[in-house]
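Below is how a single chain appears once it has passed through the pipeline. First comes the sequence as given, then the structure the pipeline wrote out for it. We keep one example in the README because the format questions we get most often are answered faster by looking than by reading.
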Amino acid sequence: MTTFQLPARLGHQLQLNEIPYGPPASVQEALSRAFASANRYPEFLPQRLPRLIAERLDVAPERIVVGAGATGVIMHIVQEFGSDGAEVVMATPTFDGYPILVAMAGGRPIAVPLDAYGCQDLEAIAAAVTERTSLVVVCSPHNPTGTLVPPAEFESFLARIPEAVTVVLDEAYVEFVAESARIDVLDLLDRHPNLIALRTFSKAFGLAALRVGYALGGVGRIRRIARRQLPFGMNALAEVAVRACYEAEDEIVARVRRIGGHRDRLTDGLRDLGLTVPDSYANFSYLTLSDPDIDRVGTALAGADIHVKHYPTGIRITVGDRTATDAVLETVRSTVQ
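Resulting structure:
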């Protein structure tokens, strides 16, 4: 069997929330076979992949739109609902793509600070909605803090948002959340046609290099997003990889569980050093710090060839393997003690 390896990167790459494992062997085998047809173009506009995802979720295919990773779908959403001076309300800090893509589309990002616990302040976000607002973004789990929006709070929040305003629920890390704690998106979509759920295969499924994401929503809004799609814009390997990942569900679930254990070990280890780390429901931990500690700890991590993501309120550390976690804890311990 031919395996595919991207060029090696030095040090511990803990800044992009990638999982530390390559695709399962069965997924690699499916991709290897698919490469025999690499001389053929993909579908002009994707049809089979949305049907595959829709079948998995037990929804109509017309309620699914796919894109080049979650970022590609976000770009289409922003172009359709958040351009030409429209206000887009979001937390800060948040996934960098939102303020960047809104600005690129000519929209106006309206940033609402997180609360003292690293959670999105849904009351403040709802209060920031004005007649100029066209789009609101909520992430659960939140990036970069990993905190979770309780389902009841999100439902109450939705009730406060005018139906003309589109609400994106970014669930890029939802597979790391216990099913009992997840928002029931399908139920909410039936009652809130302005809701769009956003998901990706880059994180738990380990397909970041293939760029596969999708949005789930009502037919009307999904059609508006889909008309922004680039012809031949979806990688032909995406459908192959997604199907193979669905067939390897048990292995994917086991990996997610393993990463959760590493995350808890990282979080507990940082807390044992007297540091503040919110409960995370994703594949990263957020080390809450203030200046100059952010620079001091960040400099120490960089000196140990550990690459992390810096924010004004702290440092996000992706969960790697045991060796990476040991390196992070040892470096931070030597810095703060």
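The domain at 25-247 is CATH 3.40.640.10 (Aspartate Aminotransferase; domain 2).

See the next section for the split statistics.
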